[in-house]
Amino acid sequence: MNLFEKEALIAKQAVELENATPEEIIRFAVETFPNITFACSFGAEDVVLVDMLQKISPKTDIFYLDTDFHFKETYETRDRLAERYPGIPFVEVKPEITPEEQAAQYGEELWKSDANKCCDIRKVQPLTKILSKYEAWITGIRRDQAPTRANAKKIEYDVKFGLVKFNPIASWTSEDVWNYIRENNVVYNPLHDNNYPSIGCEHCTRQVMPGEDPRAGRWSGQEKTECGLHK
Questions:
Q1: Superfamily holding 3-204
Q2: Binding site annotation covers 201?
Q3: Sequence-ordered strand ranges (E) for 106-203
Q4: Of the listed 6, 227, 229, 230, which one is catalytic?
Q5: Could you read off the pLDDT of 9-28 as tens digits, one per residue?
Q6: Active-site residue 227, yes or no?
Q7: Sheet of 155-158: strands edge to edge?
Q8: pTM, entire model
Q9: Where does the Phosphoadenosine phosphosulphate reductase domain lie (predicted)?
Q10: Domain-by-domain residue ranges, the chain?
């Protein structure tokens, strides 16, 4: 099956799955693609999907990109999730170079001089490497998070990384996410309670003020709105 045929088949499945629940989509994903993984950033959307996966397919791989620059609360959320779900298969994925090596090669605080390069080194390249081992992946992106995500399908072919991509909660609102967290007593990052609706690396994430866009705290002051993982 060539790329065109794959995309056509997946587009057809996307229409069929559009009204399915996230749980139904996850079940379809893990049954159809046993060699599948979930990319977890430990944000609100992703902890919801961790909870769902543990109920549906607890042995499915879950990886996270450890950029070395996360908030301490993010690492603590990881540890609390591991305690909540014993045996959870978290896979740590790190960049090829350390922060010190990055500073030596590209200068101090690369995230200020060239945020795209920093994201490429610490996120995109490691992601490309880990995804090459799988035939499908699951993400927690939602359509109303950003204009770049507005057309996300529940299932689509990820041309950039060359595999099938599932977005089970693409149609959910932030309220849907938080209702699930409350109803299921899901562990979440405490930064969300302190005006951090979207949490990335510590250097490039700030609190969001009342009236601002939920993603205004990411790469504040720059035109950049995505790290390059979901374009």
A1: HUPs (3.40.50.620)
A2: yes
A3: 136-138, 155-158, 163-166
A4: 227
A5: 788 888 889 999 999 999 99
A6: yes
A7: 90-93, 61-65, 36-39, 136-138, 163-166, 155-158
A8: 0.89
A9: 36-206
A10: 3-204
